[in-house]
Amino acid sequence: MNEAALTLEGWYALHDFRSMNWTAWRAADDEERAVALEELHACLQEWSSVEEAKNGSTAVYSIVGQKADFVFMHLRETLEELNALENAFNKTTFAKYTVKSYSYVSVVELSNYLASGDGDPKANPEVMARLQPILPKSKHICFYPMNKKRDLSDNWYMLSMDDRRAMMRSHGLIGRSYAGKVKQIITGSVGLDDWEWGVTLFSDDALHFKKLVYEMRFDEVSARFGEFGSFYVGNLLNEQLFEEMLRL
Ligand code: 76R
């Protein structure tokens, strides 16, 4: 039997993709829309106060294209908290004007492929900062789910730890050449959602996503073993930009 990589888990993640029901939004009267905006504002305020208290983090982005209109990416200590905030949002007047497009449940994950291995990693503040990250407020987000292949001759899970580690080293080297340009958050979702990982990238230049992902396609881990779901790309929303997006 092959050795499973050891993983460290941090905050749980919910990527909640929504579309606007523009017909209903347009049909609402000014007062209804004002109430809806107030309740949206209250949710955004609540999420930023959780982030200020370092009990979680939330990123809000519009989505370009027809897959969704916007995404809330939430990180929280427990699945119960994620569930509670999702339900709280669903009860708002604003949510009445949204349609669920897609969601993804996972947990922030670090693996031991490239870890140095001495001491209790959770006692290391740098490790904790990666397990409980405050999400960047970069101009753009890119999210997609992925698997590692389990085909006859290309089965990631049948490879030895040493082979996997060598490939992950090469993967990490490409990744590191984008340091300062792209921030990645890998969330594990085996047993939690339909794919094995969620990949969330943040950057101030969306072309860095294209170049990084393209470069990785030539690297063995992705070239041989990567299987990818749908890509979602979008632009940062703050309260003001969100209101502008909703203004008729
Ligand atoms: O965490 C680390 O920095 C150590 C090195 C590292 C690991 C272990 C690393 C670095 N990644 C790791 C694990 Mn990654 N990553 C992806 C994708 O589109 C594709 O082809 C793949 C999607 C991107 C774009 C990306 C970027 N990485 C993983 C895992 C878990 C694998 C497992 O356990 O089997 C997946 C699924 C995955 C996928 N990776 C980096 C990046 C970048 C930019 C880095 C450098 C990070 C940095 O140094 O800050």
From TrEMBL:
Its cofactor is Fe-coproporphyrin III. The keyword Oxidoreductase applies. Pathway: Porphyrin-containing compound metabolism; protoheme biosynthesis. This is Coproheme decarboxylase. HAMAP family: Coproheme_decarbox_1 (MF_01442). Belongs to the ChdC family. Type 1 subfamily. Involved in coproporphyrin-dependent heme b biosynthesis. Catalyzes the decarboxylation of Fe-coproporphyrin III (coproheme) to heme b (protoheme IX), the last step of the pathway. The reaction occurs in a stepwise manner with a three-propionate intermediate. Its EC number is 1.3.98.5. NCBIfam families: PRK12276.1. The active site is at Y144. One of its GO terms (biological process) is heme B biosynthetic process. It catalyses: Fe-coproporphyrin III + 2 H2O2 + 2 H(+) = heme b + 2 CO2 + 4 H2O; Fe-coproporphyrin III + H2O2 + H(+) = harderoheme III + CO2 + 2 H2O; harderoheme III + H2O2 + H(+) = heme b + CO2 + 2 H2O. Fe-coproporphyrin III acts as both substrate and redox cofactor. Keywords: Heme, Heme biosynthesis, Iron, Metal-binding, Oxidoreductase, Peroxidase. The keyword Oxidoreductase applies. It is an enzyme of class 1 (oxidoreductase). One of its GO terms (molecular function) is peroxidase activity. Fe-coproporphyrin III binds at R130, Y144, P145, M146, N147, K148, H171, Q184, S222.
